[in-house]
Amino acid sequence: MSLNFVFDSDLDDMAKRLCYEYWSYLSPDDYIAHIKTLCQNYNINYYLLFKVINKFQAYLDDVHCEYCGLPYQLDVPADIPYARQRNSWFCDGCISFSGGQLNTSR
Ligand SMILES: [Zn+2]
User: Residues with Cβ within 5 Å of ion ligand 1?
Assistant: First the structure.
């Protein structure tokens, strides 16, 4: 599995570790349990957890927009297998720029 991460420079080491752990979980079934465990381990609440995670963007480095080459941006770890199943993908920017001529479900 290969992911690229881009994060805010104000994240401290603990926050980064939390994010890496968040993204290291790949089973879509137990996502809620995974979140609970992370909150317990780091002694934080859900609100804080997602606040940190939102500053930390994950990209797949083997799925790119066919048009502009932008890497696929993930929202949740469970998106990874879904993204890889696609034959082609276009980023939101290219879809809106094309006025709907590009289609993600091709
Ligand atoms: Zn694009």
Answer: 65, 67-68, 70, 91, 94
Residue 55 lies in a domain: yes
Look at the chain and report how many structural domains it folds into. 1
Burial 70-100 (b: 16+ CB within 10 A, else e): bbbbbeebeebeeeeeeeebbbeebbeeeee
Look up the domain containing 21 and give its range.
3-97
Query: What pLDDT is stored for residue 106 in this prediction?
Result: 46
Helix (H) or strand (E) holding 16: helix 13-23
Ligand 1 centroid to Cα of residue 81, in Å, is: 20
For the stretch 17-58, pLDDT in tens is 999 999 987 776 788 999 999 999 999 999 999 999 999 999
Query: pTM (2 decimals)?
Result: 0.79
